[in-house]
Amino acid sequence: MTATIAAPERPVAEPKTPWSPTRSSRIQTFTTLLIAGIVAGVLVLFTGVAGLDGFGVTFFVLSLALAVIRTARLGSKERTDMLMKVVVTSAAVLAFTPWLSIFGSVIFKGYVGIRPNFFTQDMGTTVPDDYLEFGGAIHAIVGSLLMVLIATVVTLPLGILSGVYLTEVRGRLSFLVRFVVQSMSGVPSIVAGLFIYTTLVFATDTFSGLAGALALAVLMLPTVARTSEEVLKLVPEDLRSAGYALGARQWRTAFMVVIPTVRSGLTTAAILGIARVVGETAPLLLTSLSNTVVRVNPVDGPMASLPTYIFGYLQIGTENAVLRAWTGSLVLLFIVLVLFTLARRFGGKDKR
């Protein structure tokens, strides 16, 4: 009888951890960014460097220069770590400052005109340079809502049906439909306005809210169609197979199984389409033009909107007229932010 002797276990070597930054390296990175920020701020305040945009560019250049100087005597790993941290942080500041500059300018210049009358009165009996306590933009707000509503009613069924055709039917015309939708995504907004101008405004010799809504629909359709297609692709094939197994036809499966599954995603598609067109100015200048009173009939002559309201009062150029334009910009910016917030909220439901 022989005994089997187990081989002695060899100690397992502990894996070498990658180099981790020390406290001193973190302090060096922080002080580099801090010094660059202070110097950039001083240059903005006491030289001709322009505002937040100038601060972002100056901060980016100074932080890179200081990082290169301060890492000259460090090891390769420490040097790479510090340089990458500085590059990423300064690039983020450079990308963020233009947005902050625009957002801050609109808020600080637009809040001056935020008064109750801005949301309750029109400019029918008020001249542009009157005190801000008189007149408002209710006619532009109502006009924008009406035109966007009409554009949504026209676009939403077409966009969703296009997505259903591309993902469910997949017929012979799928390539052509996808090509047209992608091509329309790159159409300049003024071209869409010119198209409606030549086909509707020129033919009827009348600017109208309906013409403006159709111009917005042309711009809104590709966004809704492409987003709907991507959302419908997320539906598992098992759901379609289950519908077919129960004897449902393709159209019934699409409209009673697939679409209800991603209804929140389709809501996101509609919201993104609205956000895409709510601030368009060029097509409305060629189709709906503008006016100074509330008009709820979309075929009863020119109709004001927030973009044309802003454009028109900036063109006038007087102090109070420009302030009215800034206030309109603030309201429009708030509407767009609300739309994108809703889109993110609804868009996350299908993922969960």
Account of the protein in words:
Helices cover 71% and strands 0% of the residues. The mean pLDDT is 86. Helix 1 packs antiparallel against helix 2, helix 1 packs parallel to helix 3 and helix 8 (237-245) packs across helix 9 (250-261). The chain folds into 2 domains: 25-113, no CATH class; 138-351, MetI-like (MetI-like fold). The protein contains 13 helices and no strands. It is flat and about 75 Å long. The longest helix is centred in the first third of the chain and has 35 residues, at 76-110. With 352 residues, the protein is mainly α.
CATH class of the largest domain: Mainly Alpha
Structural class: mainly alpha
Q: Give the overall shape, derived from the CA principal axes.
A: flat
Into which percent range does the helicity of residues fall? Answer: over 70%
| Overall structural domain count | 2
Amount of beta strand = under 5%
CATH architecture of the largest domain: Orthogonal Bundle
Mean pLDDT: 86
What descriptors fit this protein?
352 residues, mainly alpha, MetI-like fold, 2 domains, 13 helices, 71% helix
What is the element layout, followed by pairings?
Blueprint: H1 23-46, H2 51-70, H3 76-110, H4 138-169, H5 174-185, H6 189-204, H7 209-232, H8 237-245, H9 250-261, H10 263-277, H11 282-287, H12 306-316, H13 319-351
Helix pairs in contact: 1-2, 1-3, 2-3, 3-13, 4-5, 4-7, 4-10, 4-12, 5-7, 6-7, 7-10, 8-9, 10-13, 12-13
